[in-house]
């Protein structure tokens, strides 16, 4: 294959992967020149005893630390302000984020602000941050967001009811410690939702217009691992093989989209999550099949390949028939892992669609989507995701 499109691929984060990898935390703190650690987490992770697994090696190596645990499910810019205040008061010079995307995004933003002037709002957008972050170590406890290696922090402005995205290579953690043993207590419904988030990352990166050879290989590998292990991770949470493969798949999917951006599912997920408090993984799971149905004609070859990855026998099918089967395969996966909600279950109504799609159209994920949408197209995707009746909404 001759590939004549210019592209760039970069990942500055070192990855430590494996069961028990969390025990390497003190070594990394010292390598980064840290004298005192700020642990950033949410209350759920704290009370589940996960943070204690970080505290033990820090204590045994006589590394002082403070814990900031005021993180909400939808992380707010106020949390960044509070964590920053504590970090400065306690003179912390390394930030360790532990938890799901909310905790990791907040930890990364706190790290940025410990070495940059002004307010986190000043750096909304891409490559707006002037100075490197203080060292950040990211410890994921879910297999979904990939925040442990990405350039993005997505934060909520609760008053304005909008989500703000800060993207910079300076926002990438220095080290990601991915230890599947920290994910085994994750409840089935969160395992399912975060797994669908990881799938959406891999799939949207794979079919979009910014895809490139490195990201494509990563996307394919992530989708294969998710197709083989997500169901088991949901129904057998203690299964370390399934958990390890999902954690790695999530990380690999993030390595793919970090350089390519995503598509319409994520474009719509931002305003829907902000205004209706729909968990990010859940809203992506609801939207993904409907976005796929809309996008099939924009990249039929790739969607046919996705069908094969998810176990569809495409030998006797035309490319278009196989592409359509990919949508059915993802619907089946979503059903198998117990995600049955629609947007209507979260209060989304027809009268809300105008402002939802107008906000979604501002997303940088829209220009790279494989099929250019109109505002009405985005409304139709939402309508399909509001009901069990799909066929009448998505038009070709």
From TrEMBL:
Residues 191-386 form the Fe-containing alcohol dehydrogenase-like C-terminal domain. GO terms for molecular function: alcohol dehydrogenase (NAD+) activity; metal ion binding. It holds the Pfam family ADH_Fe_C. SUPFAM superfamilies: Dehydroquinate synthase-like (SSF56796). Keywords: NAD, Oxidoreductase. CDD domains: Fe-ADH. Residues 12-179 form the Alcohol dehydrogenase iron-type/glycerol dehydrogenase GldA domain. PANTHER family: ALCOHOL DEHYDROGENASE (PTHR11496), ALCOHOL DEHYDROGENASE 4 (PTHR11496:SF102). Belongs to the iron-containing alcohol dehydrogenase family. This is Alcohol dehydrogenase. It comes from Halalkalibacter okhensis.
